[in-house]
Every structure is written in C-alpha cells, then in structure tokens.
Amino acid sequence: MSDQYPHFSSMGDKAILIEFEPNISENTLQTVLNCKKSIENILCKVIVEVINTYSSLLVIYMCTIGDVYSEVLSLKALIAEANIGKNINSKLYHIPVCYDEEYGLDLHLLATQNKLSFSEIIRLHTNPIYTVYFIGFLPGFLYLGGLDKMLMISRKSTPRIKVEKGAVGIGENQTGIYPKSSPGGWQIIGNSPLEFFDKNGQPPCQISVGDKVKFYTVSRLEYLNISTEISKNNFQLKSENYEG
Amino acid sequence: MKAKIQVLQPGLYSSIQDIGRFGFRKYGIPQSGVMDSYAAKMSNLILNNSEDASVLEITQMGPKLQFSEATLITICGAFMNPKLNEKNIFNHSIIEVKSGDVLSFGKLEYGCRAYLAISGGFMVDKVLNSYSWYEGITAVFKLKKGDELFYKRENQSVGQKNSGIRVLTNYIKDNSITAFKGPEYHLLSNQQEQQLNLFSFRIDQKNNRMAIQMQEPLINELKPIITGPVIPGTVQLTPSGNIIVLMRDCQTTGGYPRILQVSEDGINALSQRLAGGNIKFDLQILK
What ipTM is given for this predicted complex? Predict the structure, then answer.
C-alpha cells in the first residue's frame, strides 16, 4: 500500500474501503464525515450505506461492483469536491455515571496501575468533552475519543464473559458505554443508568456521530432515582447545542 | 385468513430470516439475514414469493411443525430427509400442505442449513425494515417448543407455481471458498501468505451465525489495527493467530487485521459447512 491518503481498495465484490490517515482526531473525523455526506448525497441510488469509523469509510453497494476502477474514480472526484469547512451541528449530552466500586469493577486495577486515587480517576474522566466518533460493536455502543492520557489502560487479556448493561469502560485511548450486557474486554470504572439504544426510537440512538458527551458523577441513590425516572419515562436527558 | 404453524419441536437452531437488515449499521446494528442467500432465494423463487419474503432457517437438525391451514412450501439448501406426515418429500419441489399436516426432518445428508419457504412468507413482525430475528432487536431470536408462526392460507395448487427451476447444490459440497485480499492482506508475512493460500483449514466447533473460526491457527505477530469497518465475509486474524470468518450476524466494526474478504458465494458455501469439515481459500484478484 502506498502511504498516500485517502487510500482506496475494494473490500470484496460489493464494497469499497476508503482509508484516511489512521488516527483518532477531530480533524480526521471532520474530513471523514464531510466525505461521507457527499458520497451519500450523490450515490444514494446505488449504495446501501456508507459507514465510518475513526479514519475510514466503507461504501457498501447494492449490487456487485462491475468496474472497480471507474467506481473508485467517481469516489475520488466526490471526495475532492467534499466540503472542507466545519458544517456539522453537534449537541453536547450530559451523561450521569455512578463511579461506586460496586459498578467500577476495575477501579482498583486502574488506580494501582496508573498511580491515581479514585477521586482523581473520577475527576479525569468527568473533565473532558468527548467526541462520538462512531457507533459500532453493539447496537448503540458509542466510541468516544478524548480520553485523558493518564487514564489510558490496555484491555483485559481475557475478556469478561459478561459486562453489565450501562458499564462505562476504558480500552486503550477510548472510552465507551456498554448499551446492553455482553462479553467485553474493556476495563470497567462505573455505570450509567441511561438507555443508549431503543429499537423503537426514531432514530434508535439519540446521540449520533459527531456529537459531544460529558460525564457527571452521581451517587448510588441518585443512580437508582434516575433508573426509576427512566422506567417511568420521566427522565430528561440534558443536552445543549455545541459549537466547538 | 391467518393460519398458524404450531412448533412441536424447535430443532437445534431455527430462526426466521430474510435478505437482511440494511441501513442500520450506523447504529451498530448487524445486517443479519439468511446465512446461505442462494438457497433461501431459490426457495422463495420456486414459490413465486418476493425476494425479500421471510423464510425459516433450519440448522443441522430440523424442527417438527404442524400446519393449521392449507398452503404451499418448498425446502432448499441442506438435505435433512424432510417428511410430511411421515412420508418422504424432496428439496426444491413445491409441497402441498393440508390442514393438520405435520412437517418433520430426519437425518442430515449434506449441508448444514436448510431453508423452509412458505407461500407469501411467514407473517412475523418487521423490525427496522427486516423480518430477520436477532437477539435484542426482535422479540425472539430462535424457535422454541410451543411457539406459533403465522402465515396466509393458500388455496392455489402446485400447477400455478414455478416448478421447473433448476437449483444448484454442488457448492454445498465444494471445499473451495472464493475470497479476495482484505485491507490488511499486505501486512502478512510471506510465510503467512503461503499458509493462507495453500493450506486446508478445518471448521472449528466455534461457529454460529456471527462467525466461523478455523481450527488451525497461523503464526502471528501482527498487532491490532485502529478499529475499522467489518462486514459479513471479512476474515479476521486475531493476536493468537486464529482465523475468524465473520458471518451475517457479525458486529459492525472490529480491531483485528482484516486479511481476506470472502465473496458472497463463498459465504453461502461456508454456511453449509459443518464443524470438522475442510475448506480452502481460493484467492481471486478483483478486476
């Protein structure tokens, strides 16, 4: 592969992968999302979906691609014309997290390994404004970038068979929330009572790619109160327009 | 009129599927859909159903089903010695079912997954634009004893349907799986590349609608990649060297190197392989 980005390659006979410089950054995300928009607008009749991760776009076609070369040429042209400017309206969501040890199964490990107190961990985790880079892995699993370097910790060498719904975890330089219980390898530091996926919702995920997330700490009692409010459909998720 | 199938026995793993749930990957929702899209499409085609009608995907050991009203059915894919009221019936043909009839399956002769299509499709809930069952998205994800499946009563006779369609079955027994280079193929060492191209691999016990693992690992020192998109047919190489072919229910993103991308036909063929069976990747260059 050449080192020139974006790099185009076919991924099987029905998809083309576009790779940008492989990093986790706001600039790359902005480029990726602008290109995504321009491809979706122009090719909507022949594609099923365009999906993004940190630094790539996958263009999935409805039919087998007859001529990869000409398809890549038209994608290149679309990308060259894509808007460079910042034009994505994002929202900032405030997410309650209970960092009690009851939920934060790996708080001890993180504290020991990274030489931090529990209160420092909570401060460092609630301080940043995180960016939602994409939703993947599980329905409603938000991949958040912007983690403080001091909280970085590698994944478990053997994943847990069951991570609880709402678990807030750290995996390398990413943080995220398990929208339902599932096997998982991230280190767990707390739990959020919120629902991050509703199959009947329109859309099924209220928080979307490009949005911002900030965590705030709640006690165990507040956690339980919020859970009750959610089950009664009374909870109002705090959000505001965000202009970076 | 609404007719129903009573599930007397569920079989090993039977689920309602259609061609898949498209357009929801952005929320992390898997595509799902029939594992062997060729066999499922043929079963609908023979009945003159629309291409996206739902079918019952039957894995290895078939269910026992009782029909409340007349209809027409067809079975394609794996051959499991199907019987209607204890009388042998055949794959790829249109079967007239009468009120009270019982469909059952016997010994698995070849393949792994059979598809039962019914005139007009099964009447199950459509969730996010698809009938495909998937845990967490649809209310149920596999057939249980005592379940009821609804369908439309059908009084047409066999004569009005497409009975003359030729259905291929050679791919069900073929060991060769067509694949293309994956995004991280270029990272493989010469030795890994040779092993991947020349060796046969055995299907591991770890195989389901999400993924099929190979028994023989490759020696591997490749590091994980920055999380990127994956789709059915993506072949991942784990840090311990396991080769995993992602199937229809796979996650939408992954962090293991994507060394191959199996073709649509290859996914269909793999869907019909049992644990212990041998396969070989047939690497093709895309034009």
Answer: 0.88
